[in-house]
Predict the structure.
Amino acid sequence: MIQESPAIAFSKQSSTFDKIEEENLILQYMRKRIHQHCLRFFPANASILELNCGTGIDAVFFARHGMKVLATDVASGMIKTLNSKIEQFDLKGSISTQQCSYTELPKFAEGPFDVVFSDFGGLNCISDLTPVVEGVKKNLKSEGIVTLVVMPKICPWEILLALKGNFKVAFRRFKKDGAESHLEGEYFKTFYFSQSYIREVFGEEFSLVKLEGLCSFVPPPYFEFFPKRLKKTFNILARLENLVRFTFPFNRTADHFMITLRRK
């Protein structure tokens, strides 16, 4: 069962969520990279089941690229914000919504889907992905695609914070019982997953298509000052990351990684 606190926290954040990204160049960089990854592997005119859809930034992007999305989220505020966007952008024929937890996915009438997608570490709010995988299997076509954007256990930028004496952040991802997180006055645990765990929990029924690191050289988004004050350095780091994003160990040691699997 998903923790209640994250749902409350993200509902509270729904009114400012988009503005936070609009003001953070690293988040914009990450979103662009994620969309490039998805367009590379999602079939044209795909039907997508999106988990933890948030305010629908990805759903709107996919809809504008000719895809149909069933966007789900446990946070009522996020669903409300996305429904407003659907009206605003006249996307009723391309996006539908349902408030539900990804740990209790029903077999949706709109399925089975070509793609199941989860972005920006939404799955890191639970300690065990088994119930999510069970829900995915109920709703994914044979040879369908699963793309997850997940926070791994090793993030070089965070480990380097130990040099500044910030051991709490530097080693938080290694805690077996999860790291304490705080958002909008709510406290909850965040759990971190290796790519090997994800492949294991999905099992032999799924094969790895691509593993891509996200913010291995580029700093995590809470270093939001970095591209503003050190623009040239940021651009150099982005170019370096582009060269090694599919290569071990940079495809799995980063702030996030993107993993795409295919059902056999």
About this structure: The CA atoms of residues 59 and 154 lie 29 Å apart. The domain at 4-153+180-263 is CATH 3.40.50.150 (Rossmann fold). The chain has a mean pLDDT of 97. The chain has eleven helices and nine strands.
